[in-house]
Amino acid sequence: MADLIAEAERNAALAEMPWDYDEERKSIFRSFGFRDFSEAFAFMTRVALLAEKAGHHPDWSNSYNVVAISLSTHDAGGVTRNDIELARRIDALIE
Ligand SMILES: C[C@H](O)[C@H](O)[C@H]1CNC2=NC(N)=NC(=O)C2=N1
């Protein structure tokens, strides 16, 4: 199991990324907006493939053209480098 990252390391990583820390859920989150459902779902498909490859999966929701993603490492009870890494890969999909 991956180790939780220290608060300072987490803050330093998040300062460079469009993700925020959710204190209550002990996770990082970001919302993505698209033109319509079709584009949102295409994005989710790509994220799902990334997640399977990484063996690390998002907690997420979709409402029409918005996909909200929350990442944490369940086993560790918070954020690990695996979450930061997956967030970066997800961001790279839309760059
Ligand atoms: C058995 C399997 O490896 C685990 O359940 C994995 C799967 N995907 C996971 N995804 C996330 N986000 N956190 C986990 O702790 C996790 N654990």
Topology:
Layout: H1 7-15, E1 20-22, E2 27-33, H2 37-54, E3 59-63, E4 66-71, H3 81-93
Antiparallel strand pairs: 1-2, 2-4, 3-4
Helix pairs in contact: 2-3
Bound molecules: the ligand C[C@H](O)[C@H](O)[C@H]1CNC2=NC(N)=NC(=O)C2=N1.
The ligand C[C@H](O)[C@H](O)[C@H]1CNC2=NC(N)=NC(=O)C2=N1 is lined by residues 55-57, 71, 73-75.
Overview in brief:
GO terms for molecular function: 4-alpha-hydroxytetrahydrobiopterin dehydratase activity. Helix content is 42%, strand content 22%.
By CATH, the architecture is named 2-Layer Sandwich
Number of domains: 1
CATH homologous superfamily annotation: Transcriptional coactivator/pterin dehydratase
Q: What order do the strands of the largest sheet run in, or round the barrel if closed?
A: 1-2-4-3
Distance between the termini: 30 Å
Helix content: 40-55%
**What's the CATH C level?**
Alpha Beta
What series of H and E elements makes up the topology? Answer: HEEHEEH
In terms of per-residue confidence, which ranges show pLDDT below 50 for 5 or more consecutive residues? none
GO molecular function, one term: 4-alpha-hydroxytetrahydrobiopterin dehydratase activity
Protein name: Putative pterin-4-alpha-carbinolamine dehydratase
Organism: Paradevosia tibetensis
Keywords: Lyase
Explain what the structure shows.
This protein has 95 residues and is an alpha+beta fold. It has a single domain (7-93), classed as Transcriptional coactivator/pterin dehydratase (Gyrase A, domain 2). Helices cover 42% and strands 22% of the residues. The protein is built from three helices and four strands, in the order αββαββα. The protein has helices at 7-15, 37-54, 81-93, and strands at residues 20-22, 27-33, 59-63, 66-71. The chain has a four-stranded antiparallel sheet with strand order 1-2-4-3, with helices on one face. α2 runs antiparallel to α3 (81-93). It is globular. The mean pLDDT is 97. The structure holds ligand H2B. The site of ligand H2B has 7 residues, from loops. Ligand H2B binds next to loops.
